[in-house]
Amino acid sequence: xxxxxxxxxxxxxxxxxxxxxxxxxxxxxxxxxxxxxxxxxxxxxxxxxxxxxxxxxxxxxxxxxxxxxxxxxxxxxxxxxxxxxxxxxxxxxxxxxxxxxxxxxxxxxxxxxxxxxxxxxxxxxxxxxxxxxxxxxxxxxxxxxxxx
Length: 148
Prior knowledge:
Layout: E1 8-10, H1 19-33, E2 38-44, H2 46-57, E3 65-69, E4 76-83, H3 84-94, H4 98-113, H5 124-135, H6 142-147
Parallel strand pairs: 1-2, 2-4
Antiparallel strand pairs: 3-4
Helix pairs in contact: 1-4, 3-4, 4-5
């Protein structure tokens, strides 16, 4: 994927989302967080996230973000899927924009693509997420919300 290619794909996502800013943020994540490792992020709806969650994880409900890491050595890290429906709901609950919430979810998903797992790594992912949120000027992230 060259730097001119779209990193973020939109399918059944609200038209009012600032797609240009989300693309710019994804490129920042690629360049700064992943060290140039490519990824693709699909922003879609609850129906698609429910299908992906069911088909790949056996969980029959929509979720906010899913990560699908590549399991071979190479520059492509994998794919992230984000529910715009969940992002809008969570943005309202945390009093920031849906775009900000999608950025929080994208960062969280990318850290999973980089091999981190907040359920098993003794806080390594939580610390990395908090550090990157500060650097990227993002509000409270997913791991902090759950542990609060």
